[in-house]
């Protein structure tokens, strides 16, 4: 009877041995292949990775020779592979996928496209697929092509980066100057803060002292934060920036004749500097052009501020000289609107 039971158990185990469950399989020492090539307006990335290991990493079943839920796969890849074109991080989009047999193993073949405005002078790859969550022994054999040059390397737990090319001084300076301009003109909280300061400025000399104090302060914290010397939680910084707007707006509403002091602009400038540094923390700054990048970015911010001041302050002077009574309500009403924006931003960022 005992022998019969053993025979039945053996027969039942045969199908499982022939067709092991693919969901829970783990390859260990998995391999991958990367072919990255930069063109005029995009980067093409052909990524080949062990199909079963990919399924294990994202907790999805990979079967029937196709990739399931490409959106999840794309999100996983973008969270584990950082590709920088001239220091700026770019996100990949899956254009096609397939399955290929390599050395008797199924590999997912994923073709990604990274959109660019121009062909970059430098590419940098940070690779973290599987290394921290499913297979520390994973290795990827990578080839990067850029402007006729080719760089090859093996990406592993100990070596996760690959670079090719070098950005020129002029290209780096121009890129970060434009980035600073873009940041100030799309940073509406910074714009409203500067306008609120102008509401309390009485003379050109007063404006120069306020702008100078604000510039020196945010330049200090911008450098400290970018170099990772001083770091503050982004949520705290963003909430503090909203509070600075609220504070200045309240002064403008309840004490409209007060003259803003440069020490106030300096204190809040320190806070705004950490906010300016936030965008740089998402980039891979070139060590050889670090000083140039920071200086150019700061100059871009200052040019943006000067443009705002040169437009807004003459309008304010004109309004203050008008004898038409409704014009006298423009600044108080604008201050109330700025206060409302500050309160909304603070609630969104703090809670």
From TrEMBL:
Stretch forming the signal peptide: 1-25
Protein name: HupE/UreJ family protein
Keyword Lyase set for record: no
TM ranges: 176-200, 207-230, 236-255, 262-281, 293-317, 329-347
Keywords: Membrane, Signal, Transmembrane, Transmembrane helix
Gene source species: Ureibacillus yapensis
Keyword Signal recorded: yes
Domain of life: Bacteria
């Amino acid at each position: 009877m005992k022998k019969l039971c053993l025979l039945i158990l053996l027969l039942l185990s045969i199908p499982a041995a022939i067709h092991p469950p693919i969901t829970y399989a783990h390859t260990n020492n998995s391999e991958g292949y990367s072919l990255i090539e930069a063109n005029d307006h995009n980067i093409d990335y052909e990524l080949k990775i062990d199909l079963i290991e990919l399924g294990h990493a994202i907790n999805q079943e990979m079967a029937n020779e196709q990739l399931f839920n490409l959106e999840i796969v794309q999100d996983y890849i973008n969270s584990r592979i950082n590709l920088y074109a001239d220091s700026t991080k770019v996100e990949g989009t899956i254009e096609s996928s397939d399955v290929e047999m390599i050395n008797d193993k199924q590999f997912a073949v994923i073709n990604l496209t990274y959109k660019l405005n121009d062909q970059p002078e430098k590419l940098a790859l940070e690779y973290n697929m599987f290394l921290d969550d499913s297979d520390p022994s994973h290795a990827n054999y990578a080839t990067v092509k850029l402007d006729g040059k080719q760089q090859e390397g093996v990406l592993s737990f100990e070596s996760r980066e690959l670079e090719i090319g070098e950005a020129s001084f002029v290209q780096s300076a121009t890129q970060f100057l434009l980035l600073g301009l873009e940041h100030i003109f799309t940073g509406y909280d910074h714009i409203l803060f500067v306008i609120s300061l102008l509401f309390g400025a009485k003379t050109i000399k007063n404006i120069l002292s306020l702008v100078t104090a604000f510039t020196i302060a945010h330049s200090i914290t911008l450098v400290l934060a970018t170099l990772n010397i001083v770091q503050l939680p982004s949520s705290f910084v963003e909430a503090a920036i909203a509070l600075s707007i609220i504070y200045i707006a309240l002064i403008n509403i309840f004490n409209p004749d007060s003259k803003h002091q440069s020490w106030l602009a300096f204190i809040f400038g320190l806070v705004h500097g950490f906010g300016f540094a936030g965008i740089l923390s998402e980039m891979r700054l070139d060590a050889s052009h670090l000083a140039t990048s920071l200086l150019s970015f700061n100059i871009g911010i200052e040019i943006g501020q000067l443009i705002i001041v040169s437009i807004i302050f003459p309008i304010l002077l004109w309004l203050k000289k008008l004898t038409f009574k409704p014009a006298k309500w423009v600044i108080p009403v604008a201050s109330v609107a700025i206060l409302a924006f500050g309160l909304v931003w603070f609630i969104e960022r703090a809670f």
